[in-house]
Design goal:
2 copies of one chain form a homodimer. The first copy, chain A, has about 120 residues and is of the alpha+beta class. Chain A has a single domain (about 15-115), classed as Winged helix-like DNA-binding domain superfamily/Winged helix DNA-binding domain (Arc Repressor Mutant, subunit A, Orthogonal Bundle). Helices cover about 50% and strands about 10% of the residues of chain A. In chain A, strands 1-2 form a two-stranded antiparallel sheet. Chain A is elongated, with a radius of gyration of 17 Å. The interface between A and B is large, with 42 and 42 residues.
């Protein structure tokens, strides 16, 4: 019944991991932005996030995992570059897969809830 | 691989439904509390939520669905009673089933993420 999911539906999923890290859409989008822009600052900027905030989230993630998720060359005129490590790519891919699994395995439940909604005026 | 999920792991899932209602753990817990206590006030109280806030959430949910999720007898000395309608029970059951489906279908993804975590000191 996946095809019946209304396009306006959005799902946000937060994982509270053992050890205390919360992994949710913000950190996932930040990781994706770093992979796409090659820069922590640029990734944060396109999310409307300060440089300091973006760095803080990266440091939080890097500290929580055995290997850092983001490798970066801090400093330099351009602020250095950044990229996802294999572990960072893995965490991002698995998080996205978890959302996809939810939408697929939960399609009937979501459809049952939306079927009870008041039709839009 | 569901058995491999660490017990300390928690998952919070928010559905942003067509029409604008957000359905998440707070509203689900409130519905469950109403079913268990027979009272909107008591359900809110055990979540540390004000009577006004609990009523506001119930009214928001009732307005979003074709049929109300909570039926209540407002007023009276004891504040009247409340119970879930069939639709309210259905929405709650489906929301809980969606979480269960996520944990089951996403077990491998969750396990892959947690396997990369730094072991606790």
């Amino acid at each position: 019944m996946s095809d019946d999911l209304p396009p306006e539906l959005r799902l946000r999923l937060r994982l509270y991991l053992p050890g205390g890290l919360m992994l949710g859409p913000g950190k996932a989008d930040l990781l994706e932005g770093i992979a796409e822009t090659g820069s922590i600052a640029a990734a944060g900027r396109r999310m409307g996030m300060s440089y300091k905030r973006a760095w803080s989230l990266v440091e939080e993630m890097n500290a929580a995992f055995t290997a850092p998720l983001v490798a970066s060359a801090r400093g330099g005129a351009g602020g250095g570059g950044a990229h996802l490590t294999a572990e960072g790519q893995s965490v991002l891919t698995r998080y996205r897969a978890l959302i996809a699994a939810t939408l697929q395995a939960g399609a009937d439940d979501i459809a049952a809830i939306t079927a009870l909604l008041r039709p839009k005026a």
